[in-house]
Amino acid sequence: MNNSQLYKGSLSLIILKLLEENKRMYGYEMTQKVKEQTGGELVINEGALYPALHKLEADGLLTVAVEQVGNRPRKYYSLTEKGEAETINRLEELTEFVKHMQLLLNPKLSLG
Amino acid sequence: MNNSQLYKGSLSLIILKLLEENKRMYGYEMTQKVKEQTGGELVINEGALYPALHKLEADGLLTVAVEQVGNRPRKYYSLTEKGEAETINRLEELTEFVKHMQLLLNPKLSLG
DNA sequence: CAAATATACCTCAGAAATTGATATATCAAA
DNA sequence: TTTGATATATCAATTTCTGAGGTATATTTG
Questions:
Q1: Which one of B10, B12, B108 has the shortest CB-CB distance to A112?
Q2: How confident is the model at residue A21 (pLDDT cuts 50, 70, 90)?
Q3: Tens of pLDDT along B51-72?
Q4: Which among B4, B16, B23, B63 is placed 20 to 30 Å from A11, CA to CA?
Q5: B38-48 burial string, b = 16+ CB within 10 Å, else e?
Q6: Could you read off the pLDDT of B9-56 as tens digits, one per residue?
Q7: Where do the structural domains in chain A lie, given as residue ranges?
Q8: Taking the CB of residue A94, how many other CB atoms lie within 10 A of it?
Q9: In the predicted model, what is the mean pLDDT of residues A35-44?
Q10: Closest-CA residue of chain B to A43
Q11: Which architecture does CATH list for A11-105?
Q12: Do B6 and A91 touch (CB under 8 A)?
């Protein structure tokens, strides 16, 4: 994530949301998907991604299944039930937050 | 700020924006203003506020004027020119970021 | 075929920001 | 007179990210 000081803490939500839509993804795939979907403007740093994945797993929001692809192992992550519920909660939290920011910064932010 | 993991890093922008609108404010006033403008839903933690104010000051974005009110000193903060420019930049950055989050999380976020 | 690039995982030191606790002190109102 | 609001501030611990580095396989291209 190259967007400096602000916006910290949104990475885990991005991961959760990606998995909500795609069911099964591996880390590298996530970095590429985000790059692609934002026209290369949002780049996930792997030094942030892997620790975040491990934390989400430790928190019981993700499960991992290792698969051998060709000669190398690949770790597919999926949401647990807890993870699905948490994703919904965090999206609501974000919506709330945007609403609050809108109240404070008025001009440009609104809900669709 | 009690709104958990996400949304870190937005505090300094909130401060800048408050000062853009109000010219002169002191710390405690900011916490009350934010509480008021968000119906009590966004609460600025003073343990975050004061370090943030000091950092913005150290970065040359704010100036301070101490005034004696009754028996106690009060610190009024204002934007410097640099601070005004920075406020505009950071608001643009936020707009960009919301745009990117919108691309990733699709459903509920949009620009006004 | 060799070299470069892409894929794919990972860790770690240091930086930055926040939480939650704690401290101090004034002042108004019950 | 003591509670609660006003007003400032610091600090340890925690979380999170950046930027760098490390390992290894697979594919493309000159």
A1: B108
A2: very high
A3: 999 999 999 999 999 988 888 8
A4: B16
A5: beeebebeeee
A6: 789 999 999 999 999 999 999 999 999 998 888 889 999 999 999 999
A7: 11-105
A8: 20
A9: 90
A10: B100
A11: Orthogonal Bundle (1.10)
A12: no
